[in-house]
Amino acid sequence: MDLSTVRWALPTIFILVVSSVSYANNETKDFLKSNFEEAPKPQRLWIDKTKQAEIKKQFNPSQIKLSYRYWKNKDKTIWILDEIGKERNITTGIVIENQAIKKVQVLVYRESRGGQVQNPRFTQQYYQKTSQSKLIKEIDSISGATLSVNAINKQVRLALWLNQHITP
């Protein structure tokens, strides 16, 4: 790759990354507005070494963060999580109320295939699932979208686990 190509490519890549982050932020704001009358301030659940090890063992996520941001009002908590489907992040909003899933919504889908996981018919399957649920058996998979379904399952299981570790 010559220098003129690099000079052209870098600004283009920067614009794509910035616009993707901005789009995700707008989707997050809209999701919070639709699930809270007035969105509470975000809080953080800090992940120590013990929790990191447990997350890695139980969920094997594509990334483990130092903290996870959430919004909580009374018994309702919202988690916005990212997980890689096949190659790119899927950003999902998960609403938990009384330790059960109230709503799952794919906020930003970046993969080229498997977008059927965005369909409310698919995401409604998570309604009322708890940490005791066996998602692999209870959630119908989608032919051609196995990796995306697996990513959503990881996000839901992780959100339920994280939710049990926040202090009231």
Rg, nearest Å: 17 Å
Q: Which residue ranges are poorly predicted, with pLDDT under 50 across at least 5 consecutive positions? A: 15-23
What's the rounded overall pLDDT mean? 87
Strand fraction equals 15-25%
How many domains comprise the coordinates? 1
Task: For the record, give the distance between the C-alpha atoms at the N and C termini, rounded to a whole number.
Answer: 55 Å
Would you count the extended β strands for me? 5
The helix/strand series, from N terminus to C terminus, equals HEHEEEEHHH
Helix content: 40-55%
Structure in a nutshell:
The chain has 168 residues and is α+β, with helices and mostly antiparallel strands. The chain is built from 5 helices and 5 strands.
